[in-house]
Amino acid sequence: xxTADLHVHTTNSDGSMALNEVxxxxxxxxxxxVAVTDHDRLHPGLDGPVTERDGxxxxxxxxxxxxxxxxxxxxxxxxxxxxxxxxxEIDRLQRDRVARGRAIVERVEDRLGVSLPLDVERGxxxxxxxRAIVDSGADYDSIEGVFADLIGEDAPCYVxxxxxxxxxxxxxLGDACAVVGLAxxxxxPDPGSALDLAAxxxxxxxxxxxxxxxxxAARGLxxxxxxxxxxxxxxxxxxxxxxxxxTVGTTGLERAAADRFDAALGDGAN
Length: 270
What we know:
It contains eight helices and eight strands; from the N terminus they run E-H-E-E-E-E-H-H-H-H-E-H-E-H-E-H. It is α/β, with parallel strands linked by helices. Helix 3 (126-135) crosses helix 4. It is globular. It starts with a strand and ends in a 5-residue tail after the last helix.
């Protein structure tokens, strides 16, 4: 039974659930701990590395995209304590997100001949744009279809972001977080190369809902390969649902693994 969902997004980035809704969602799922890992942003409603709200432990986290040279990957930081360097980089990334969001919206509107019901602001992500396209009356009824046809990588309306390189991201999160891991290693074009990067971190996301929202696992590798990497390099196993809606706990850590994660948070859990 999943007791910890360590990969959840809120309206602070591109999720649809507000922070104050998270404890109730966790209780409905029987989950006792949730990591709030908004994209390139710390949550202003969390004032410590770990807090308790309505009987649910909320771990302050962040999901940071970095450039590994051959591909871009996502890193997850847990038990965040704010540093000036991380705050400065987050501010830069949010400005870039706004500029990139405007560029994508303009491309979509020109291509589809629609006006999207969307305010481009900090925290905006492509799922926000996809939801707006579905709501616009355009000929799309699913977020997956929007990504495939319009705003996914290599799609006609895609615009790349200006992200830090892997070493810079590892430094920023290493200084600010109790645990730093690689997110969903099988989602990348070259999952083997991504798993090599995991060996240089504290953790790797073993449990992940591959197949959900078209997040298909890579051919030739499976979760067992991720588990072997964790064992070979003595990495902490993490896991979560990558929730962008109001449902948490579909995937995550069971009790024994959640206890190991808590121990790794150290002082951040106090």
